Every structure is written in C-alpha cells, then in structure tokens.
Amino acid sequence: MYLSRIDLCFTAVQLGETRKLTVLTHLTDRPSAPCSVVSQSPKGEMLEMPVEMIPQGYEVLFTPTEKGDHKLKVNFANQELPDSPFTAKVDAVDVSSVVVKGLEKRKYRLD
Are 56 and 24 in contact (CB under 8 A)? Predict the structure, then answer.
C-alpha cells in the first residue's frame, strides 16, 4: 500500500518559532492525493493547518503558541498515516540569562 512510503520530517520546535513540516509523497503511486494536517495543542485545541503542494509532496507551516506536546494528525488519500498522530515537543526559550550590553548610561563631559 502506498501509505507505507510516506515520511513526515520535522524536529523539536521552540515556542513561537515557525517550522516547515514536509509530508513526502513523491514516491507513492498517488503523490497528489489529498493531504490534511490537524494540530492539537496541549490544551486540546484543534487547528486544521493549511497545506501547500510542492514537487516532493506537501508543506505545512507549524507555529506553536503554547509549550508542551502538540499532536499532529496527518491524513493522505483519506487515510491516516501510520504512527499518526505525531508528537512535536514545544519548549519555551529560557531568556533569564540574556544580558544586553552597550546601552549603559554614560556620563559626558562638555568642555
């Protein structure tokens, strides 16, 4: 069956970062069959994500707005992919140690 030859490629995502997800369908016998991706946030909110056809299959832009595990349900040719839903771990960046230099107050002496 053609579903066994589809790959979903993505890695962990930072909170607020936009990540491009790719559903590779070009090696299947129906590479342009309908594809859909639904994201479920840690709070259970569901969002159907827009998909764009590319030569290798489909692309989806994923921008998480809350940290935690997000579930991504992927359907291709009206069938859910094996191992779907996929889990994307989303973490916030710890900025507590970031220091900005160069904006300190300076005393100027006018002669």
Answer: yes
The structure's pTM equals 0.73
Count Cβ neighbours within 10 Å for each residue of 55-68 and write b for 16 or more, e otherwise: eebbbbebebeebe
- Select 2-91's CATH number: 2.60.40.10, 3.30.160.40, 3.40.50.300, 2.170.150.40: 2.60.40.10
Choose among 99, 108, 8, 2: nearest CA to 57: 8
Residues 33-57: pLDDT tens digits? 999 999 999 999 999 999 999 999 9
Residue 17: the pLDDT is 87
C-alpha to C-alpha distance for 10 and 8, rounded to whole angstroms: 7
